[in-house]
């Protein structure tokens, strides 16, 4: 019995243990089930999140495709707009060029046979054509500004000349009004470093605006220097601007009197363009006005005045003279428009110029190679071969590159034209006299200052006036001592020397000039009968002789022209050619001025353009910026050095990067030297000469 009891107790204990184990297992199973359920829930949440992410990724991809499509549409719209503006400009300016040109021809050729009514009608046609041209220019200029396509070309410009030209244009608008227009330019503001075309546009817009709203009194254009800033002020005694309208006058299409009953014409774009152009030239515009008392506009262009730059002497261009060296000057006109050919030829032939015509780029190159004209007038839009290709080919040929090429086009791409070597860039339509003046300057470029030494003041004045009329800067000396002092301070480009002078005669002046190792040419202008000994002395001093007689001045002009042309050809053939690849226009201008007269400078605005110019021009040395758009300087140098024919051409890095790592990268890419900005002129010249020495 006791055994059974004991057995039962054991069974109960075992049963109790099993119950506990079962309870424990049940708890574990419950806990595991809860874990599984939680993981299943998490997996479901993750699945839902993945589905949401997939949907979001699909939406983002769709949005990206839509954005890319929209960007392509915007890019295409911008391209079409630019293309439309270019075509619109061409199609509108071309007939206007014909209208203005033929009116000018009729006035010149038939003016005496026309009645007073006929002359007045021609004047009306010309005035209306110019008004239409001004309106079209305003619309196109504003479109270019908004599209960021404005080309800024800064250079030293004559402020007085610009204001005088603008004033002459505006005086036509003032005929019939009792309004006096004055121009005042301080000595310090005679020369400014800015974009002359845009400064002219600002001044013309403000003067035209003043003329429109001034019926009585005066308009004054004033240019002054304030430190390094150029201050241009246009003041009138017109109707004035209401105070509540002053803040709106620079808005596009906004006019003080914009109603349909307004009495003044215009689109309301002129002042908006003035403000935008002022900003582009690092300036600002301010206006003050009183009703009934007039308005004053002030433009401040920061940094436009450079210390130490002497004002240029104004050239007398009232009668542009195009004369020959020993034959009639020859000008090649390259344009496919017969009307332009006739207009340009008619004006140039008045000055005795021989005009050659090429209707396309291929014919232009043939005539340039065969005829070697003195100047090429080149349109850009040409059949068979465009103007850019013609310009590049001419400047790449050592036998042709000295020929000045003047671009005459409806498209304004001055930066590209100058970088390819254009002498001047004119935008159609251009005034006939302006065209003739540019051609004359191209035929007779500046030879530097001409020093005239003669004790006879009348002879000095006669020679000076005649040479200045031809575009030369002239200074005078009344005796040999004064001449030598001037030469020590600033050697001239050419010396015109009399022999018979009191004190130190011309022979001694010539001897001292050559003893000082000055190599500028000397033209002796004398009335002395020369002995064989005299001639031997002058020949030893490399001086040419002109006898004073009725033709001596013209012979002197011809001799001066001959020297200039010869020097231009020699320099073009002997100067080393350096390519500067730089995207900042200001930096290019600094280097251009540093190297003026030392090398023949080629320019490129980005890495890809630099490679193109290098392959075409084969320069003697390359100055390479490193931070460049489209293709950086490291990559451009590496690509150049990968080609065996460019391996000998030294590449000098000229950059603002100053770290050792950047220098090592440049040298590894193939650069021969490394200069950091800002660089001194002496250091730049020393580096260039160092690397040119093996090849030049």
Q: Predict the CATH topology of the largest domain.
A: Heat Shock Protein 90
Largest sheet: 5 strands, mixed
**Count of domain modules:** 4
Extract low-pLDDT stretches: 258-263, 308-326
> How far from one another are the termini?
132 Å
- Radius of gyration based on Cα positions: 38 Å
Oligomer: single chain
- What is the correct CATH architecture of the largest domain? 2-Layer Sandwich
Name of the CATH class of the largest domain: Alpha Beta
* Structure classification: alpha/beta
Structural overview:
- By secondary structure, the chain is of the alpha/beta class.
- Helices cover about 50% and strands about 15% of the residues.
- It is elongated, with a radius of gyration of 38 Å.
Write the layout of secondary structure elements.
Elements: H1 2-110, H2 116-146, E1 155-158, H3 159-173, E2 178-185, E3 191-194, H4 196-212, E4 216-226, E5 229-236, H5 270-280, E6 283-290, E7 294-301, E8 330-334, H6 338-349, E9 354-358, H7 361-371, E10 375-378, H8 387-396, E11 405-409, H9 414-419, E12 424-427, H10 432-443, E13 450-453, H11 457-469, E14 474-477, H12 480-489, E15 494-497, H13 506-515, E16 522-526, H14 532-540, E17 543-547, H15 552-574, E18 577-581, H16 585-594, E19 600-604, H17 607-617, E20 621-624, H18 633-641, E21 651-655, H19 660-669, E22 673-676, H20 681-692
Parallel strand pairs: 2-4, 8-9, 8-10, 10-11, 11-12, 13-14, 13-15, 15-16, 16-17, 18-19, 18-20, 20-21, 21-22
Antiparallel strand pairs: 1-3, 4-5, 5-7, 6-7
Helix pairs in contact: 1-2, 1-6, 2-5, 3-4, 4-5, 6-10, 7-8, 12-13, 17-18, 18-19
């Amino acid at each position: 019995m006791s055994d059974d009891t004991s057995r039962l107790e054991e069974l109960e204990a075992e049963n109790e243990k099993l119950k506990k184990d079962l309870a424990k297992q049940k708890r574990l199973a419950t806990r595991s089930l809860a874990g599984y359920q939680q993981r299943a829930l998490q997996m479901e949440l993750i699945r839902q999140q993945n589905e949401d992410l997939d949907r979001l990724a699909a939406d983002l991809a769709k949005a990206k495709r839509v954005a890319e499509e929209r960007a392509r549409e915007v890019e295409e719209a911008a391209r079409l707009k630019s293309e439309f503006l270019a075509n619109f400009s061409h199609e509108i300016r071309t007939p206007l060029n014909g209208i203005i040109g033929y009116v000018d021809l009729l006035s010149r050729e038939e003016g005496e046979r026309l009645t007073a009514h006929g002359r007045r009608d021609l004047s009306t046609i010309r005035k209306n054509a110019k008004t239409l041209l001004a309106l079209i220019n305003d619309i196109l200029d504003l479109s270019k500004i908004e599209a960021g396509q404005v080309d800024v070309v800064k250079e030293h410009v004559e402020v007085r000349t610009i204001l005088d030209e603008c004033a002459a244009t505006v005086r036509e608008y003032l005929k019939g009004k009792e309004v006096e227009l004055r121009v005042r330019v301080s000595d310090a503001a005679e020369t400014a470093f800015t974009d002359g075309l845009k400064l002219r546009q600002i001044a013309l817009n403000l003067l035209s605006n003043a003329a429109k709203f001034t019926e009585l009194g005066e308009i004054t254009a004033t240019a002054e220097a304030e430190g390094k800033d150029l201050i241009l002020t246009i003041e009138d005694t017109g109707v004035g601007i209401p105070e509540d309208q002053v803040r709106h006058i620079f808005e596009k299409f906004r006019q003080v009197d914009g109603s349909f009953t307004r009495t003044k014409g215009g689109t309301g774009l002129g002042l908006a363009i003035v403000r935008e152009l002022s900003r582009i030239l690092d300036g600002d515009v301010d206006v003050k006005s009183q009703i009934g008392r007039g308005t004053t506009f002030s433009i401040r262009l920061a940094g436009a005045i450079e210390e130490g730059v002497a004002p240029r002497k104004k050239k007398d261009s009232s009668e542009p003279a195009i004369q020959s060296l020993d034959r009639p000057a020859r000008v090649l006109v390259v344009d496919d428009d017969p009307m332009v050919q006739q207009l340009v030829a008619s004006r140039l032939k008045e000055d005795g110029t021989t005009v050659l015509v090429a209707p396309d780029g291929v014919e232009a190159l043939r005539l340039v190679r065969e005829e070697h004209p003195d100047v090429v007038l080149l349109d850009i839009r040409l059949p068979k071969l465009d103007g850019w290709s013609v310009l590049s080919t001419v400047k790449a040929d050592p036998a042709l590159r000295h020929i000045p090429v003047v671009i005459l086009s409806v498209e304004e791409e001055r930066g590209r034209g100058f970088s390819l070597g254009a002498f001047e860039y004119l935008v159609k339509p251009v005034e006939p006299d302006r065209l003739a003046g540019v051609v004359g300057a191209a035929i007779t470029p500046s030879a530097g200052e001409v020093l005239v030494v003669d004790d006879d003041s009348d002879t000095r004045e006669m020679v000076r006036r005649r040479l200045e009329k031809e575009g030369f800067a002239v200074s005078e000396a009344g005796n040999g001592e004064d001449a030598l002092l001037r030469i020590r301070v600033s050697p001239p480009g050419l010396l015109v020397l009399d022999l018979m002078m009191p004190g130190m005669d011309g022979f001694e002046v010539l001897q001292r000039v050559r003893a000082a190792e000055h190599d500028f040419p000397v033209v002796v202008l004398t009335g002395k009968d020369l002995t064989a000994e005299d001639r031997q002395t002058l020949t030893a001093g490399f001086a040419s002789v002109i006898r004073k007689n009725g033709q001596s001045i013209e012979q002197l002009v011809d001799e001066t022209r001959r020297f200039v042309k010869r020097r231009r050809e020699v320099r073009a053939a002997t100067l080393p050619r350096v390519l500067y690849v730089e995207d900042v226009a200001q930096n290019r201008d600094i280097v251009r001025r540093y190297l003026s007269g030392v090398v023949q400078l080629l320019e490129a605005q980005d890495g890809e353009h630099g490679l193109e110019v290098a392959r075409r021009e084969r320069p003697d040395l390359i100055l390479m910026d490193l931070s460049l758009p489209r293709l950086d300087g490291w990559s451009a140098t590496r690509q150049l050095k990968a080609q065996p024919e460019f391996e000998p051409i030294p590449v000098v890095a000229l950059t603002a990067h100053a770290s050792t790592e950047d220098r090592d990268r440049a040298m590894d890419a193939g650069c021969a030297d490394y200069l950091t900005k800002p660089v001194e002129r002496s250091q730049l010249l020393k580096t260039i000469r160092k690397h040119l020495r093996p090849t030049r």
